[in-house]
Amino acid sequence: MKKYFFILTTACFMLFACNKPQQEEASTVKKDPLPSWNETATKKAIIDFVTNVTTEGNSKFVPVSERIATFDNDGTLWSEQPLYFEMVYSVDATKEIAAKSPELQKKPELKALVSGDKAGFMKSGEKGILEAFAISHTAVKPDQFDQMTQAWLDTAKNAKFNQKYIDLTYKPMVELLQYLRDNQFKTYIVSGGSSMFIRNFSEKAYGIPAEQVIGTMFKAAYKDGNISLKPEVWHTDDNVGKPEAIYQIIG
Hints:
The chain is of the alpha/beta class. The chain has helices spanning 2-28, 41-54, 85-98, 108-114, 118-122, 125-138, 142-155, 171-182, 195-198, 202-206, 241-250; strands at 68-71, 157-158, 163-164, 186-194, 213-223, 226-235. It is built from eleven helices and six strands.
């Protein structure tokens, strides 16, 4: 009996001894930080960059306090076709706002919009779109704007993809944002879209808190404990406006 016990014990020992290196080897295999990315030179360059700037002693090492990454939104973090999503929201919201305002309906393009004649509204071209952008963002109080935006994001669907707009983010880019944050980068959105619109979904969609969103901004006025917005642009966060905002706001 002792002989068989010895053989069994030895066999078990050898089995676990053989498995140990394999288990250790498996545990040392690095998890792919960007699993949705194709194995290209671009992916390698990103991983090499992050490795270099986070490795102490490397000539390219960057202290944690200086690890900042900025991203555009439209066409970078989520889709922008066939129209900028915020523009679609602006038209939808302006229709809702103008329907309750006889004064706004005195304008032919807004009267057409309220009546359901989008083609008639679109004839006003860029002027009408910019007008809708200003009305939808400033004709209501900021908290009402947030409520309208949230309701729209919860229900409106993109006609091309038949999906909610908030679901049309690019998975590889969301992975990249997380990969950078895992390596102690602070991630910002610096977009031509408005700060007030993007802040309503940035944390849910990208893990980026509202205070790390920089975009086009309207002039604000403070009176009697309340903030209101004027239909005048305070900062256009596009082209040269982006590096200017990065300097002015992030430093």
